[in-house]
Write a structure and sequence with these properties.
Order of helices and strands: HH
Largest sheet: none
Helix content: over 70%
Structural class: mainly alpha
Number of helices: 2
Oligomer: single chain
Number of strands: 0
Distance between the termini: 57 Å
Strand content: under 5%
Radius of gyration: 26 Å
Length: 87
């Protein structure tokens, strides 16, 4: 849920930079719109890929943390079940 807006943010930032560049270079309106459309589509796809990678990393980290918790709980219960006797 936290990564929901990543593609939109990346796409809008790329579009803003493209518009500024086209205004500075004083391109025609039709050329600017064609370039902008291409940039928006490309960077939206890049944003989707980035979101999927970030989601995969987050879920992997959460699974590893849960595995560590389960392993730690198992060690604690094993230590409690076997009392140590000194001879």
């Amino acid at each position: 849920m936290r990564t929901r807006y990543i593609p939109s943010i990346i796409m809008l930032l790329a579009g803003t930079i493209t518009c500024a560049f086209c205004l500075i270079k004083s391109y025609s309106v039709t050329l600017t719109l064609e370039i902008l459309l291409g940039v928006l589509v490309i960077f939206y796809v890049i944003g989707l890929i980035a979101r999927n990678l970030i989601n995969r990393i987050i879920t992997t980290d959460l699974e590893q943390a849960e595995d560590m918790d389960v392993a730690t709980e198992g060690e604690e219960t094993a230590a409690e079940e076997e009392p140590v006797t000194e001879k």
